[in-house]
Amino acid sequence: MSRLRVFNTLGQKKEAFKPLKEGEVCMYMCGVTVYDNCHLGHGRAYVSFDVIRRYLEYSGYKVTYVQNFTDIDDKIIKKAQEENKTTGDVARIYTEKYFSVMDRLNVKRASSYPKATEHIDEMVGAVKKLIKNGFAYEIDGDVYFRVKSCPSYGKLSGRKLEGMRAGARVEVDRRKYDPLDFALWKKAKEGEPFWPSPWGNGRPGWHIECSVMSAKYLGDVFDIHGGGIDLIFPHHENEMAQAYGISGKRLANYWLHNGFITIDKEKMSKSLKNFFTLEDIFKRYEPEVVRYFLVSTHYRSPLDFNEEKLKEARTSLDSLYQTFRQVEEIQKMGSAKIGSFLPGKQFREAMDNDFNTSGALGIMHELSGDINQSVNRWYKEKKGGREILEKCELLKEWGDVLGIFFKKEKIEDSVDVQKFIAEREKARKDKDWKKSDEIRKKLQEMGVIIEDTPAGTRWYVQKN
User: Fold this and answer.
1) Which of 94, 128, 229, 448 falls between 20 and 30 A from 301, CA-CA?
2) Is 208 helix (H, G, I), strand (E, B) or coil?
3) How many domains in the chain?
């Protein structure tokens, strides 16, 4: 196992990572509310925790990764009313859209995807227990959590009760004992979906959903709880408080949060109308380029979105692919077979330092440069082929940890490409440079880039 250290929001410091059960990690990630298309901020969050999951698996852990879907919510109800659909239809449509864009970003599927509407009975049971334990109260069909009953409230976010005000997702209700008390169960309004409960027809509050589903699939205490930094308060703070009221435990030992996406240094948000959906971004940039961009900055740091950085990501990614293409030429010329992998100490050191993907990419580019130099020496001396192949395989292995190198370069009319290349080589042999240049230009129009090497002409598809 690795010497991994992670920054734990609960305590605001880096800590040695030690799972509850040796060799296994249980991990919960707050999922999307399925009422709209996923934007770049969603991509940042789920790619970040996908890398964390991948590195834990690379380090030898068996990872159980659970991610929920909030499929009943005020926003879903509003969307359904606007589009004359059922809430179930809206949730289904946007759940499918979520999988579509995340699959294109090479985000691995979770071990399970529990949905809020499939766990109503467990949520009702949890609310009943909170009332019984003195942490909640009912008023006219609504049930609220009594914040002041939880002595550790504010520990995760570093806030003190005296200075708190009702958060953005805490509804103001004069009936509540305290403005900070938040809804566990909401009384049904006319025309809204509802489920029966001891307090009348209604639906669960947002926070109780995650407390119940994470505990059901991973236990009262599990290893890692993840989410965006915007979820620390009130959502994750409230999850912890509910868990304390239900089981007397803190739900998760390590709380990890990814940073914001900013647009020209301002937080991306729908209210500012400066957000980009992943579908729109994919029209201009390949998903692999977007993923590279997302992992190029440490997951906890703010990530500023702009065109230049995406172009840089494309160039950097293509430079790594160029290394693979060079090594493929050596393989075609009969180099030694691949031997055992190199240890990759520096890469592990970067990732063990709170999943430092930026540092890891730097190590990957250093290795890529080393491979390129070795390839140039190989052409002169015909030595070191085995070492080159080992390093190339190591580079691909690291790429898999970061979730890159999943774009397969191919073109439908590859037969025509080979025909044009053969014609161009003949033209070059005949010193017909005009025809050679015309064929190169024709290939470029097809999106094909050709390079003349000591091993002959090679080609690849130009990335968007």
Assistant:
1) 94
2) helix
3) 3
